[in-house]
Amino acid sequence: MESTHTPLSDLDIARSADIHPIADIAALAGIPADALELYGQYKAKIDTSRLTPNAGKPPGQVVLVSAMSPTPAGEGKSTCTVGLADSLARAGKRVMIALREPSLGPILGMKGGATGGGRSQVLPMEDINLHFTGDFHAVTSANNALMALVDNHIYQGNELNIDPRRITFKRVLDMNDRALREVVIGLGGPTQGTPRQDGFDITVASEIMAVFCLSTGLSDLKERLSRMTIGYTYDRQPVTVGQLGVEGALTLLLKDAIKPNLVQSIAGTPALVHGGPFANIAHGCNSVIATQTARQLADVVVTEAGFGADLGAEKFMDIKARYADVAPAAVVLVATIRALKMHGGVAKSELSAPNVEALESGVANLRRHVHNVEKFGITPVVAINKFTTDTDEELEWLVAWCVAEGIEAAVADVWGQGGGGPGGDELAAKVMAALAKPHEFRHLYPLEMSVEDKIRTIVQEIYGADNVDFSVPALRRLAEFEANGWDRLPVCMAKTQYSFTDDATRIGAPKGFTIHVRDLIAKTGAGFIVALTGAVMTMPGLPKEPAAMRMDVDDDGGAVGLF
């Protein structure tokens, strides 16, 4: 007789786990009590100014977890990040986790949260996946305060001569809401402000989120905020936040949010969850402050970059590692049987059915990601994230393929056997071996290269494209950026996560294509140029059946349907 037992959800597993007082986790990590700012029993912010540097301890080594091109549901990067860290701790390493904070847009939409899954989760998952410590609200408030101040400046006489038609900064909301992509504001008469076309981005696409995550402290945060360009004058000169004189107010709104958040994994591994720019429309990495704090406290820091290695990992290497001393000593690429089958041409509805032939077609995607990481001077370890639908035959085939390709790989059953269990032990051993090997990290391109050539280098070297095509507006931007002295900034590509191309339907490892850059945006505070490609949106929409339709709250105030 078949079992009628219903598998436990991630929420069920999280609720059944033993969670320790956050003060105990802080003590384990070497964080003094006077550096903790408690948000209830199980989460806290860290006042990094109260941490005492250990002069005899070198900074912890960084392990970057990335992935192959994902399915719409994701391939479990956060799960593998948490499971790997737990397994390294199980092997006796002093380790910390550094993750991004989840955005409410994908949580209520399709992709889900970002706290891991199964036995490899960070806790308290309900809090982290909802409002947490209010960091995203602070970023949203700072962004929208800036725009209120910009429009008020125009209304009150416009001393800076700002052209309302050339304002490039938008309002934001931490929600997927396609109806707000294009709006008109200031209607209703002279006392309501100056009418102009405007729009909303999702909070994780805000430049303030990028600045927040790349700043090294309050003074750097304030300086970066002052450099942000909000638009142009009537004679097309850039206008900055510093010219408005409001960087102090924005910093004030962010002064508590900038402190990293301390939580724990199911196994009790300390975790810093802080900041959260998207990787397909922003740079996709957690905050520099959190990563550096973790390096100060631990010997190994396991962190992640969003989506596939063509997006998050490339941006980690060329943007975050360029601005902060966080170059990885090892890289893990997460691969799944289902993603390989999708890239082998299997329909999403059929991914659970065994199909070794599709794996043979789909591994071209994984191979390209492996070779791309090697271009940064690091040979990656492949983590085969095991799903309950995977067959032994499929897993054995993939392991054998990796061996034949000379790729270090391990099956990681961290969803089912994580939480301090043996599911990630083999992966941890291979990662420790990788950490012990010397390597020469390098960036993909020098900053002296033109913006056009930086983009061409990324699309040819990482995506495998033949060339890049710039729209007429994008070509005008290139000339403007060079005239303004912004052409020495790194590039942040805004591209679909599902394909190496700018067309989400072209799966696998396609060749013979061109990337189309429709526009460019200068993020002068964050310090990079965003190249918008294809149909990628800075304000996503909700799917036909949003995850929110399955969510509720019980009579005790507990979440229902949160994964």
Structure report:
The protein has three domains: 16-52 and 63-133 and 257-435, Rossmann fold, CATH 3.40.50; 136-251, 2-Layer Sandwich (Domain 2, N(10)-formyltetrahydrofolate synthetase); 451-533, Formyltetrahydrofolate synthetase, domain 3, CATH 3.10.410.10. The strands form six sheets. Strands 1, 2, 3, 4, 5, 6, 14, 15, 16, 17, 18 and 19 form a twelve-stranded mixed β-sheet that branches. A four-stranded mixed β-sheet has the order 20-22-23-21. With 563 residues, it is of the alpha/beta class. 52% of the residues are buried. Helix 15 links the parallel strand 18 and strand 19 (409-412). Mean pLDDT is 95; it is low at 1-5.
Q: What is the count of helical runs?
A: 19
Number of strands: 25
How many independent structural domains?
A: 3
Give the overall form.
Answer: globular
**Helical content band:** 25-40%
Instruction: For the record, give the distance between the C-alpha atoms at the N and C termini, rounded to a whole number.
Output: 28 Å
- Largest sheet at a glance? 12 strands, mixed
What is the C-level CATH assignment of the largest domain? Answer: Alpha Beta
Q: What keyword list fits this structure?
A:
3 domains, Rossmann fold, 34% helix, alpha/beta, disordered N terminus, Domain 2, N(10)-formyltetrahydrofolate synthetase, 563 residues, twelve-stranded mixed β-sheet, Formyltetrahydrofolate synthetase, domain 3, 25 strands, four-stranded mixed β-sheet, 19 helices, globular
Brief summary of the model shown:
The protein has 19 helices and 25 strands.
